[in-house]
Amino acid sequence: MKYDKKELLKEKIQHIDIKKFNSIPLIESFDNMAFQSRNLAKACKIYDTMIKDKDCTIVLCLAGSLVSGGLKKIIIDLIEHNMIDIIVSTGAIVVDQDFFEGLGFNHYRGFVNADDNQLRELMIDRIYDTFIDEGDLRVCDMTTKKIADSMNPGVYSSREFIYDMGKYLDKNGKNPESFVLEAYKNEVPIFCPAFSDSSAGFGLVFHQTEKKEHVSIDSVKDFKELTELKVKSKETGLLMIGGGVPKNFVQDTVVAADILGVDVPMHKYAVQLTVADERDGALSGSTLKEANSWGKVDSGFEQMVFGEATVTFPLLASYAHHKGSWKDRKAKRLNTLLK
Amino acid sequence: MKYDKKELLKEKIQHIDIKKFNSIPLIESFDNMAFQSRNLAKACKIYDTMIKDKDCTIVLCLAGSLVSGGLKKIIIDLIEHNMIDIIVSTGAIVVDQDFFEGLGFNHYRGFVNADDNQLRELMIDRIYDTFIDEGDLRVCDMTTKKIADSMNPGVYSSREFIYDMGKYLDKNGKNPESFVLEAYKNEVPIFCPAFSDSSAGFGLVFHQTEKKEHVSIDSVKDFKELTELKVKSKETGLLMIGGGVPKNFVQDTVVAADILGVDVPMHKYAVQLTVADERDGALSGSTLKEANSWGKVDSGFEQMVFGEATVTFPLLASYAHHKGSWKDRKAKRLNTLLK
Amino acid sequence: MKYDKKELLKEKIQHIDIKKFNSIPLIESFDNMAFQSRNLAKACKIYDTMIKDKDCTIVLCLAGSLVSGGLKKIIIDLIEHNMIDIIVSTGAIVVDQDFFEGLGFNHYRGFVNADDNQLRELMIDRIYDTFIDEGDLRVCDMTTKKIADSMNPGVYSSREFIYDMGKYLDKNGKNPESFVLEAYKNEVPIFCPAFSDSSAGFGLVFHQTEKKEHVSIDSVKDFKELTELKVKSKETGLLMIGGGVPKNFVQDTVVAADILGVDVPMHKYAVQLTVADERDGALSGSTLKEANSWGKVDSGFEQMVFGEATVTFPLLASYAHHKGSWKDRKAKRLNTLLK
Amino acid sequence: MKYDKKELLKEKIQHIDIKKFNSIPLIESFDNMAFQSRNLAKACKIYDTMIKDKDCTIVLCLAGSLVSGGLKKIIIDLIEHNMIDIIVSTGAIVVDQDFFEGLGFNHYRGFVNADDNQLRELMIDRIYDTFIDEGDLRVCDMTTKKIADSMNPGVYSSREFIYDMGKYLDKNGKNPESFVLEAYKNEVPIFCPAFSDSSAGFGLVFHQTEKKEHVSIDSVKDFKELTELKVKSKETGLLMIGGGVPKNFVQDTVVAADILGVDVPMHKYAVQLTVADERDGALSGSTLKEANSWGKVDSGFEQMVFGEATVTFPLLASYAHHKGSWKDRKAKRLNTLLK
Description:
Four copies of one chain form a homotetramer. Chain A has helices at residues 5-8, 24-30, 35-52, 72-80, 91-102, 116-121, 134-150, 158-172, 179-185, 199-210, 219-232, 244-259, 288-293, 309-323; strands at residues 56-62, 86-89, 108-109, 124-127, 130-133, 154-156, 190-191, 215-217, 235-241, 269-274, 302-306. Chain A is α/β, with parallel strands linked by helices. A six-stranded parallel β-sheet of chain A has the order 7-2-1-9-10-11, with helices on both faces. In chain A, strands 3-5-4 form a three-stranded antiparallel β-sheet. In chain A, helix 2 (24-30) crosses helix 3, helix 3 packs across helix 14 (309-323) and helix 8 (158-172) packs across helix 9. The first copy, chain A, is globular, with a radius of gyration of 20 Å. At the A-D interface, helix 6, strand 4, helix 7, helix 10 and strand 8 of A face helix 6, strand 4, helix 7, helix 10 and strand 8 of D.
């Protein structure tokens, strides 16, 4: 059967709105059950405790295909309602997926058992059951080049570059639903420790190839800035969706502060939604108790939930949103501390 | 730290009530997303289609620690609202967990990192994060012996024995919330192809040891009866929670009918909620498309959802319940066909 | 592309021979490493200790598509070299896969991304990447009917029936490489607690449909017999490939003995090779430490290995074989105790 | 029970030597079996084909706790025998684990169910079943600072920095078994796209905090350099252990080249050893067929193997080593192209 590109790119992924359903009754039932339902309930309660704790700076860590999966609006809502203060993410989520949609492009409902050869010929990229028009992605790549071209040559943190991406969307965006834009407006810093591993990497490589005097992205600067924010926070809590570099990077700030001679507490709260398993010794699935041996995450308020994020994250975020503890919480606007 | 048995067995597992929250808005959002949220939405829609299809006999397959995990009331609700017609289950769910609770016993909230040596000394059994009083389990074992003792010696299907367990609960039960009881009242047949692999196994071994003339459980008889029900159904749909023997057993009825010379259609609908993976070649994680090669499950209306059942099953069942398609569906009371 | 049945059923699965490679150097290296390599090394050493322990009866538990996966010869070797004394298995491994090959049929190298619709039309059944001629399977089904027809009507344990299957192969088999045959010759009992959930189920249903006086398979009798063997063993050790019913069934014999008033020790040794995860609360992935809380498995000599059995089982079995501790071990011929 | 630090840090992790056992007979058996054994055999054959293909540049991608897990010597052997040409890795493997051991420190056999609170008090860090002396790690952090201090201020790729780490080990190392050192000597470039997410991050943050004129690590430069190597290679093959950033980063070079206006072929060969699952839509578990839709990985010579790397990587590497195809292969010394 021959594919028709238009047919394949017809049904847009739509982002779930946690304000439109209230998961509190469900989560409260889960709390009296067992296995992952109870773990999820415990994670929800820990996140709500973080929000209530006035001293706590909340870091949202993002890995996986979360925005293409329909979770973008949740991140926007968490920013808007002061439920998180910092984002640490993979580059793909920030650039290829969120910024990409901010430029007016979309992800599309596809299917798993696709003929990938045919997709390639049509310039359609597949993420499991989701399709992307590769032409759109190329525009996204080039836009990051344009942004780099417009900046003063020099060394930047990914946070600084992403800030400029927000500014770009504010002026030129075609879809106001973008967490890069929302974070920009609310001065929520976004860090991508592996920034060039994204659509922006393409744009920046092109930029550096063209210009002798150019923009560089120094992830050490990111680490320094994030550590600075850790130092300036009385307490910290981690809300981790997936594992990977973001999970490790933010945990390491405790050690980094220590090395700089500043005595900071471990991360007091930590929640991770993941499908990874601890048995291969890799970081993504390593338990939060293990992180305690490293002096990174305190024991007492930590919970891992084994489950895929498109199912578990909406339940957790809806719970926290409807609990309303954010109503007494102020925007920390941490970007302003880093200028 | 020394454990105190009373302290450990204090908080009862409570069963989630799908009538008290409406997952339709959530599932409808999931349908426009990706990955497992969309798969779950598709599974919900297929299950609703089964319920609407007047010709379809619906078989619920159960594996895993579902009742100890807080999912018992869902199964009761599905029976009560004519949303399923047959149950195929592991023995543990039917006897050790549901019948056990029908006798007035409970499962308790425990914790994962328990000192299992101490638990053993206190005669507390652990299922991941859940505790059981082993003394209670022994009473359950002995009750199945009592039931066997009261029956005429002979060869029975597990279905027949479980029917008598329902009758026993009807007279002597201490907790009306039992799906064994509910199925008994509604003439919903329950099959356990590996029946002696359960608390009833203990009672029956004791029974057979004591009595020369005794009750035997012939799973061939179960297979014959289940195949008979398949033959008498115009169409069939499978709602599988977990994999294991129940998944395989019910799929095999298509072939069994064929061998008996009756031409029956494949199972028209099939949904499986599971954490198993196809990559080890085992049946539990084998895809429903693979089952198509065997001529067991039709293609078109089949969906696997990767997720742990205490989270996904309540969402699916609440969706189907609130859709209300069951209102036009009549109880099939299939037990009456087998008498 | 249209499939050609002959082309698809050309390359036979060949069974690995643990005598032809020596995994000892590899396993000894693994012992000084980490994660699953070290776990596998520990499992190997525990299994070797079981073999050395003269008082220990060793039970091999089998679940998953092990014989179709190429592991049949290992099981035969373990029997032949007195490295196991009892087998508890799923029905499919015993009947659909091993007995099936004993009749002269084969499994074939296939591929994962097959068009299952086309396979169905060609009567080819798929197990992940492996193909089976459904016509051959039907002959296997009918052979079990023939065996049942030849037996005196009455109630049998699966062990008794499988013994007759061995006898049948001894007379009529077309491929001497069958562990059902090898176990028959060496008086190693084989138990299938869910026996009708197999190709034999088809034959037996046909048999019972035809004959009023017929053979029944009572798994309670299996449980009684297996418990008897547990009672008669000074110590016991479990070598579990996969989880499912076999894992639970054999663990339960400790409790069954207790209920019959006999004080038996817990299983002293336990090894499980599995890809299952403990986090869903199901039995297959439940830790052996958890089994300790139930008083079923002793602590000290227990090890789970996370890995797929076609890779891990050959390494473990080759290690134990080349260690040679079996040379001082005698065949227990436990079937003779049950006659 | 109170822990004793000396007791806990006694047994060193030892690295497996693929030259000391020959996995060819095992892998050849695997090739006629099914499931992951056959997949592993196929992966071995593809890797051997890469080595034979004179036009092929081979990129080794590393993620997970591979060196602490005992796989260091394999990587050294692959470099030494010209079996790989480029390494793309997480920072932890390069700095915290390999460079760390090059400085004379060790990883130790620990255990999983450790009391992490006590470990923290003793300054022992845990990776699943492995222990590390945090004091040693701090020395490692500071050594990277020292290296940064010794460099001319400016913007570097991680590759350049790691080259200087190799040079440092060459002069000051205490253990010649280090792949950073071996790569340095053989001019094999090592890229860490998320370099500051490692022990080096600590040292570099300290360095930047102290010095106004300092070293920056620009991962765009890494991307540019790696793309340059892709452009200069006729064909490329990927040997991926784990997923994460390295997997994505190297795949993206095909697109990066295209964006720079150079027409390069897709990666012709690709092998991935992983425990990740495709069903969550994340990159780590995404199939190599999916990568084909992106125009990154060619179809035909690609294979994923589901299994934990400490078991599967030694088997694959031993196979390729004993096949000996490397004997006709020359060192590419690609670092020299980037100077």
